[in-house]
Protein: DNA 3'-5' helicase
Amino acid sequence: MTKRFLDFLESRRVMAKVDRVVIDECHTIIEGSLSFRPKLRELGTLALVGVQMIYLTATLPPADEPAFFSLINVRHEDVVMIRARTTRRNVAYSVRSVPASTVEEAITAIVEEAKVTIDQKLEEYPWPAKIIVYCQRVEATEHLAAKLGCDAYHREIDTRDGKAERLKIWMSGTKREQYGDGRVIVATNALGLGIDVPDIRAVVHVETPYRMADYAQQSGRAGRDGQQSEAIVIRLDAQVSSRKPRPLVSEHAATDSYISGDVCRRVVLDSVMDGRNDREGCEEGEELCDVCQCRVDKENRESEGGMIEDREEGDMRQQELEVEHSRYRAVTLVAEEHQDYLDYKKKLADRVLEGCIFCKWQASGEDRTHSGLRCDKAIEIGGQVQEAL
Structure:
């Protein structure tokens, strides 16, 4: 920040021609260092001009606020902070793991997984929906873009106008002969700031992001039109050889926590980026992250299993009741038949006790206590019946 420029601002302020200064993507002030964009840190001197300062960013974690306030020369109590949620309700966050034990295996495996994932998303989201694939290194960006057959975008490629032309072609989707009908671009974080393309349906990170702030910034390119979109990380399941130029592990525990999948992805993002610690998982109206989706699927399976068990138990009970009813009817029928037999037997006994039935039928005055089998009347009546036949 030159003295000449500060004097210019002061002269405009004195003439009431400067009301406020607005700095967009102000989190980049912290990212400046002696070796990387050192002038960024000098932006804090603008606060000395004496006009209202407005700083805009979507990726300033609460943990970075003290350092940021120090660089812009203000006290925390003098700042009016307005925060909105960093995670997008319409974006489904997920992580896919790729096993590898050597550098060669890692390169092959992660490129293959990236291709499979992107092919899947191209099919799910038809033209003109777009996809950004982020890589951490320029060489990885070039390699993957060549493998896929699409454009690459990074700080070293092309001229300023050439970069703008690449973006224009990708955003318009006019290069239909390219991979994915020209809807895919592979980039470094050079494509992370100031990109407001409404129909980006998937943001794919190849390798684990180093910082959650960077990941939030880049994944925030997805679904800016409010439509269902995805933010996917493809990471190696194991560390590979230390000969790799940069390790495939994050420098912050928060990134490791996000990648591990021990808790909801939004829980980690909201905690780191917004200081929110009351979240337990994806909430109503939000696209489920893969962790919460797995939990819901498991609960549904258990619930369905319980319902099946309840139905099976009910069917078994119904069968038991039917068997018990059949057994009861059989026992009852046997008892009724036995009672009929006893009744019939009793009637026979009663008739025997009444004496000779033939003498009773003839109404003779003779003694009827004898058995009908030895009765002369029975023989006589039997003969009469045969003669009649």
Observations:
- The longest strand covers residues 91-98.
